[in-house]
# Entry
Amino acid sequence: MTQPETIGSTIMSVAQALANAGFDEPRRRARRVIAASLALSATEVFAGLDRMVTEPESERVFALLARVVAREPLSRILGVREFWGLEFLLSPDTLDPRPESETIVEAALARLPDRNRAYRILDLGTGSGCLLLALLSERPMATGVGIDCAFGAAAAARENAQRLGLVGRADFAVGDWAAAITGRFDAVTANPPYIASSMIATLSPEVRDFDPRVALDGGGDGLGCYRAIARDLPRLMAPHGIFAGELGLGQDCAVAGIIALAGLAFETTVPDLAGTPRCIVARAQC
# Structure
């Protein structure tokens, strides 16, 4: 007779399968798989280790596990990703936001310190809208515009704004970077494609096979999109306005040069939690 399974023993089985497949932190990932399969919170999983798992529940757990082992990201399976403590819907046209991108939000907020000021924010390559909407959630008087080349991404960003109660302060449109944008902004943010075309094939399957290539591919040297963005920054930034953009590994000096050639004043790079320069900050020349 098969031994009845509990949540605790199921965690052990799932973690072992993940470890065998080469995943790091297998127990943490196992808890997430079980929470998602059984529609439980992390707290409920921890509190219910002795709870019995029914056969249909076990089937759901291991069906989801099979997809994860095949390198399909859990966030893609569920269609949502948490970012800056907020839940964002994903679509096939949106990048899956990563925790290191929160560095851009932190850098921008530090330079937009007044919660009562009506800042104007422009987010280029907005994807799910995570950067813009995270900033608006922290600055209640601010408004913003998000631009993406993909209709599906702009639609997803609008839906996220609606879900987060920010639709009245955020507009989203389809466009070629800032080509159709007029006016000036207190902050411009971007997480542009910055992977060199030749390196796309070397990315992990979770990224290569599930993130849209247009959100990854930065051209021959990975910097093509930064050159396109930099050309428009001087006309977009208000006096004392700031630009905060995500960097790829080892791109800090090259992007700083592109920004300087466009006529902006390079301020600094900001590291992520791993200590990698992740965000470049520049200011309008006054």
Summary: Residues 7-70 form one domain. The mean pLDDT is 95. DSSP finds eleven helices and nine strands in the chain. Residues 55-69 form the longest helix (15 residues).
